[in-house]
Amino acid sequence: MTRRLFLGILCSFAVFGDCHLFAVEPLTLWDSAVPLPKRADIPVLEGVAFHVIKPRRPDADGCNWTLGVGLAWHEGRLYASYGFNKGSENTASEEAHVRVSDDGGKTWGPAVVIDAGEGNLGVSHGVFLSHGGRLWAFMGAFFDAFQKTHTRAYVLDEAGGTWEPRGVVVDSGFWPMQEPQKTADGNWIMAGFRVANGYPVAGHLPAVALSRGADFTKWDLVVIEAEPGLGDIWGESTVIVEGGRITNIARYGAKAVALVSTSADNGRTWTRGVPTNLPMATSKPYAGTLSTGQRFLACTTTADSGGGRTPLTIAVSRPGQQLFSKVYVVRHSVSDKTPGVSDPRADFSYPYAIEHEGRLYVGYTHKSHVANELAVIPVAALKAE
């Protein structure tokens, strides 16, 4: 029996049976010994502060669409980037913007254009990396109406506050969704997905880019294949790095459940992506490990939300454990705790999260309301017993 077939059998049992049977290959994501609650029964986090990064102001800046908050702390300042478009999503008028906060997200400086593209080139949302005293930005880009997606890199000019382009650093459809993280072999891994439009390939699959050491201008694309028969996939993905072992959690697309795959060689080869026992909205997820040793996953994960992007939740594991076993609501669509959007139709899209000095900073977008916001969560509140 091949390893790939063996893993597929494990997953088939794990999704519908007891995930504790397969601790060696934890392909499930939710601890099946703990019932996953419905959204009305999930506790709401206490002590969360909410701030607005980019409000809906088409009268002031003509913004018709925005999405994809990326966050980074660099030299004591909080940076937030996002895609901006006066036209429609995934068209060549898309631009990459950034704002900076000197007070932890309470207030923000003016929007700065990282790259507005040119002609039939659109540049959109992406991720940051603060490393070696420099702040890098890796932004998704494409031509025409979402054709030939690729990733472009930029470096912040600290003196002038402008961004120096470093050109295309990942080609062949890669769009970054999570900041680069160092792996056990000394390279860096950047999670995202491969958009097939305009390339001679099939499927919008989960993918990662692997650096060649600390050279952030050269990356190798690794596409994560899915088990046959899963149907349409829109594989926006995130990774949890634990030594040489890496877990990739991806948006399914056709169904409101998370896909998972694993790598035991620092991201160079992967098991095929398979559905899990964790319901998850059809939106980009963001995962990582807290300073407490707990895994976390920001998205919408409840027993009854289906593909809906509300409420915004965070699932966590027990310290040192691999399975999520507790879920919290960050906020519901209607909320009196936020200076931003409060509306029954508010949808929480494309979350992004970074930890800093005991707090988890979670950026997200109300896609239907064209607004980017920030939730600041005390890490101590994210307990799983």
Explain what this protein looks like in three dimensions.
Helices cover 5% and strands 47% of the residues. The strands form 6 sheets. Strands 10, 11, 12, 13 and 14 form a 5-stranded antiparallel beta sheet that branches. The protein has a 4-stranded antiparallel beta sheet with strand order 1-25-24-23, with no helix packed on it. The protein has a 4-stranded antiparallel beta sheet with strand order 2-3-4-5, with no helix packed on it. It has 2 helices and 25 strands. The chain has a single domain (3-381), classed as 6 Propeller (Neuraminidase), CATH 2.120.10. By secondary structure, the chain is mainly beta. Strand 24 (359-366) and strand 25 (371-378) form a beta hairpin.
H/E element sequence? HEHEEEEEEEEEEEEEEEEEEEEEEEE
What is the domain tally? 1
**Percentage beta strand:** over 45%
CATH architecture: 6 Propeller
Q: How much helicity do the residues have?
A: under 10%
CATH domain fold name = Neuraminidase
Average pLDDT, rounded to a whole number, is: 92
- DSSP helix count? 2
How is this structure best summarized?
The chain has helices at residues 3-16, 58-61; strands spanning 49-54, 65-74, 77-85, 95-101, 112-115, 121-131, 134-143, 147-157, 162-170, 174-176, 181-182, 188-194, 205-212, 215-223, 237-242, 245-251, 257-263, 274-279, 286-289, 295-299, 312-317, 324-331, 348-356, 359-366, 371-378.
Outline the fold blueprint:
Elements lengths: L2 H14 L32 E6 L3 H4 L3 E10 L2 E9 L9 E7 L10 E4 L5 E11 L2 E10 L3 E11 L4 E9 L3 E3 L4 E2 L5 E7 L10 E8 L2 E9 L13 E6 L2 E7 L5 E7 L10 E6 L6 E4 L5 E5 L12 E6 L6 E8 L16 E9 L2 E8 L4 E8 L7
Antiparallel strand pairs: 1-25, 2-3, 3-4, 4-5, 6-7, 7-8, 8-9, 10-12, 11-12, 12-13, 13-14, 15-16, 16-17, 17-18, 19-20, 20-21, 21-22, 23-24, 24-25
